[in-house]
Amino acid sequence: MKLDHIALAVENISKVANLFENLGISFEDQEQILKAQGITYRHSKDHLIELISPLKDSHLQRFLDKLGDSFHHLSFSCSNIEKKCLELKNKGFEFVYEKPITGAHGKEVNFLHPKSTGGFLIEISQEEKK
């Protein structure tokens, strides 16, 4: 697996994207909506940073209410998500979803539950087919 991106939970995506752009990191022009997960998101142009914000009251809003703008999760990509999920389940890891779901940019994703990773939320995504 390889690092795909680092996600930051933020109240105001435009404000935080502007901060990073002032540091020299370019972001995609527009926010995208992922209704199934109840978020809006915007990636840096190299896709290494993902800014996420809740659309409505949700687990992400409760996260922000508790911690404010903060690190949210690490995402790692693999070539076969179903195989990787089975391998990790066999090692004792628990997942947020029973099966992978569709995430940003149409990628198949699943999240390792923080209770099985020492408190870290880790996303596994399938690499985009070329």
User: Mind telling me the CATH class?
Assistant: Alpha Beta
What radius of gyration results from the CA coordinates? 15 Å
- The CATH architecture term is Roll
- Catalogue the unreliable spans: none
Helical content stands at 10-25%
Q: Based on DSSP secondary structure assignment, what is the total number of beta strands?
A: 8
Strand content: 25-35%
Secondary structure layout:
Elements: E1 2-9, H1 13-22, E2 32-34, E3 39-43, E4 49-54, H2 59-67, E5 70-78, H3 81-90, E6 101-102, E7 108-112, E8 122-126
Question: Could you list some keywords that capture this structure?
Answer:
8 strands; globular; 2,3-Dihydroxybiphenyl 1,2-Dioxygenase, domain 1
Structure overview:
- By secondary structure, this protein is an alpha+beta fold.
- The protein has one domain (2-126): 2,3-Dihydroxybiphenyl 1,2-Dioxygenase, domain 1.
- The chain has helices spanning 13-22, 59-67, 81-90, and strands at 2-9, 32-34, 39-43, 49-54, 70-78, 101-102, 108-112, 122-126.
- It has an eight-stranded mixed beta sheet.
- The chain is globular.
- The model has no long low-confidence stretch (mean pLDDT 93).
Question: What is the compact description of this entry?
Answer:
This protein has 130 residues and is an alpha+beta fold. The chain has helices at 13-22, 59-67, 81-90; strands at residues 2-9, 32-34, 39-43, 49-54, 70-78, 101-102, 108-112, 122-126.
